[in-house]
Write a structure and sequence with these properties.
The termini are far apart. It contains 5 helices and no strands. It has helices spanning 2-11, 18-49, 58-80, 89-97, 101-114. The chain is elongated and about 50 Å long. Helix 2 runs antiparallel to helix 3 and helix 2 (18-49) packs antiparallel against helix 5.
């Protein structure tokens, strides 16, 4: 009986369903792309206004919300073990949302490698 419980717990740690894994990857890449779009909108608005971004603005709230959604989606991939090679999608996403352009590039590469390159923009 204990072996059955252990087997059940172990099977919940990674996705054995390729279709489910693809769905989670698509969700992640969609969220990452939404965060990139929100970030770009704020940067564009700040450039048009000739100043920095207003931290309390609705646009910056959208960036924060989109960043949290991307991190949440990356947690699911991390929890399910759906990564490529040496990627650390959760760490890369958290660091990207924190402003690390290299981490954003790695997160974008993850989406490229997953077949969802059209959902994200190249980092930079």
């Amino acid at each position: 009986m204990a072996a059955v419980v252990v087997a059940a717990l172990m099977s919940s740690c990674s996705s054995d369903d390729p279709a489910q894994a693809k769905q989670w990857q698509q969700e992640y890449c969609t969220e990452l792309g939404s965060w990139q779009d929100a970030k770009r909108t704020v940067a564009s608005s700040a450039a048009d206004a000739g100043g920095g971004q207003d931290v309390g603005s609705p646009e910056s709230d959208n960036v924060e919300s989109a960043g949290r959604a991307a991190i949440a989606a990356s947690k699911k991939l991390d929890r399910e073990g759906i990564e490529h090679g040496d990627s650390h999608i959760l760490d890369d996403t958290v660091n990207a949302v924190g402003g690390d352009i290299g981490a954003e590039g790695r997160a974008v590469s993850y989406c490229d490698g997953s077949g969802f390159e059209t959902l994200v923009d190249s980092a930079g």
